[in-house]
Amino acid sequence: MTAYYNEIDPYAAQWLRNLIAAGHIAPGDVDERSIVDVRPDELAGYDQCHFFAGIGGWSLALRLAGWPDTRPVWTGSCPCQPLSSAGQHKGHADERHLWPAFYGLISERRPAIVFGEQVASKDGREWLAGVRADLEASGYACGAADLCAASAGAPQIRQRLFWVADATLIRSRAAQSRNGAQKTDGRWPVQAPPYRGFTDSFGNHYRIPEPDVPFVAHGFPGILDRIRAIGNAIVPQVAAEFIAAAGLVNSHNGN
Fold it and tell me: What letter would DSSP give residue 192?
């Protein structure tokens, strides 16, 4: 098993298991407990850890960007409801504000690379500022971009903040400083990951607008669960663009 998926919603968790069985995302274990109940030592031995995993969008995005399933990385799209313009506007007082629990695991396990995503609202930007402060205080270099689904060809906005925390860059710069070397490697490759789409009878090409994750979870009644699962998911194609642009796919091999 290479991956650990943490997802509290039973419907999405079963969807993850079906996607794993079909080979669409990295093989691994699905844990339906709340992240607050996960102990750091339980994550030992996993190459990848995906928190708030939903229907596996981050795992698919990593594959689209050329990131091997066995290469260590953590991802987490903390719940957006406390920060969404459509929510109750409770912010940090909301019980679904789970960054402290996620950060606690990060600070204990010290993954080399962490990718994340959050809603691009005013509260979301304030949230991201706190996240960056926490991570930078823990020795991570951080970067972020405000991207929308339309940037990957989708007929919708779905504006999101994508962020990355890189401990290997800090280590590399420290080593270069000790050796008197200058940083010369480029960090922003522009080659985009491949996309799938279709062409109509008039020759017009369209990209797939929703997350490129097949409906393989069978036996569940109703459509509302599917709408919720996809609506809460990231668009993997946009996340793949961000991963590629961060310049980390081929630059590090750290644990």
Answer: P
Residue 151 burial (CB count, 10 A): 16
Question: What distances in angstroms separate CA 115 from CA 31, 56, 92, 206, one per listed residue?
Answer: 19, 14, 21, 28
Tell me the residue type at 203: G
Amino acid at 237: Q
| Spatial CB neighbours of 226, under 8 Å, sequence gap ≥ 6 | 215, 220
Q: How far apart are CA 223 and CA 243, in angstroms?
A: 31
Write down the H helix ranges in the chain. Answer: 10-22, 57-64, 99-109, 122-137, 167-179, 224-231, 236-245
Cα separation of 88 and 99, whole Å?
18
Is 191 strand, coil or helix? coil
Cβ count within 10 A of residue 177: 11
Contacts of 189 (CB under 8 A, 6+ apart): 244, 245, 247, 249
| Collapsed DSSP state (helix, strand, coil) of residue 22 | helix
| CATH 2.60.130.10 holds for 3-245 | no
Q: How confident is the model over 209-249, as pLDDT tens digits?
A: 444 444 444 444 455 567 677 777 899 999 999 999 998 88
> What are the helix and strand counts (H, E) for the chain?
7, 9
